[in-house]
Design a protein that fits this description.
17-stranded mixed β-sheet, alpha+beta, about 270 residues, Diaminopimelate Epimerase, Chain A, domain 1, 19 strands, 4 helices, about 15% helix
């Protein structure tokens, strides 16, 4: 089976995009895993575009383990740019598991997407029991085996935990991520971010993504981190989140809705032979 597809990325957070509005394929879990495998095509997430009566399109996101994800901020921005180039519209509405998300195409490959209002109640994350989501008191170890207790839980379409630390480079996200992703507090697993506040306008992060592992950038992690920073009185309403590949600008508006702005790549057409 040959499938025409596209590759895009947001700050290195890369995606294979399949336009299925003509219902050309119905991929199995094993086929999704194969496409995401970097020894075959390779991507952080697979995105399937479908028709939608209430929006420009409906999006489904799949992690590299074949499981479906509720939200993907960078992926939404990439597809918004993709559809904008097709329709010449500068405002794009995309339906996701989290609802209709509005994106604005600003030019020069910059796209902003309104992710919506973060959820912080324990049963909305969700957690396995009623806990203080602002500080879960989960233990992580730095490279010197020194304990750090913390973790703020936020849901921005999928569950996240953010650990604020004094020195980001003292923590190995590849060692910490898998254990926290599968922590018994999180029945649906979680995305894991280790964050260092540089100042009120800048947070540096490393991210372990649920179902995908170490990732160069994660849009929803940026949104969750900015919201958690404000919640803990560490940052203001507007914050840049810095990955090794660049920055995403996060704005929390007067209604507490989160907006994410950043670059997307050009579109590369590929052919998948399954």
């Amino acid at each position: 089976m040959d499938i025409k597809a596209f590759k895009m990325n947001g700050l290195g957070n890369d995606f294979v995009i399949i336009d299925n509005r003509q219902k050309i394929t119905n991929l199995t879990k094993d086929q999704i895993i194969k496409i995401c495998d970097r020894n075959f095509i390779g991507c952080d997430q697979l995105i399937v575009i479908e028709n939608d009566k209430s929006a420009d399109a409906n999006l489904k996101f799949f992690n590299s383990d074949g499981g479906e994800s509720g939200a993907c901020g960078n992926g939404t921005r990439c597809v918004a740019d993709f559809i904008s180039k097709e329709t010449n519209n500068k405002t794009i509405i995309l339906n996701t598991f989290s609802g209709n998300l509005k994106s604005e195409i600003l030019g020069n490959n910059i796209v902003t997407t309104e992710i919506g209002i973060a959820k912080t109640d324990w049963n909305e994350i969700p957690l396995s029991e009623k806990l203080n989501t602002k500080n879960l008191n989960i233990k992580i170890l730095d490279k010197n085996n020194k304990e750090h207790l913390g973790g703020t839980a936020v849901n921005v379409g999928n569950p996240h935990i953010i650990f604020f630390v004094n020195e980001l480079e003292n923590f190995d996200i590849k060692n910490i991520g898998p254990g926290i992703e599968n922590h018994n507090f999180f029945p649906e697993k979680c995305n894991v971010t280790i964050a260092q506040v540089i100042d009120k306008d800048l947070i540096r992060v490393k991210v372990w993504e649920r179902g995908a592992g170490l990732t160069k950038a994660c849009g929803t992690a940026a949104c969750a981190t900015a919201f958690a920073g404000k919640l803990n009185n560490l940052t203001e309403n507007k914050t840049d989140i810095e990955f090794t590949t660049g920055k995403l600008s996060i704005l929390i508006d007067e209604k507490n809705s989160i907006h994410m702005k950043g670059p997307v790549s050009d579109i590369d057409e590929i052919e998948i032979k399954l």
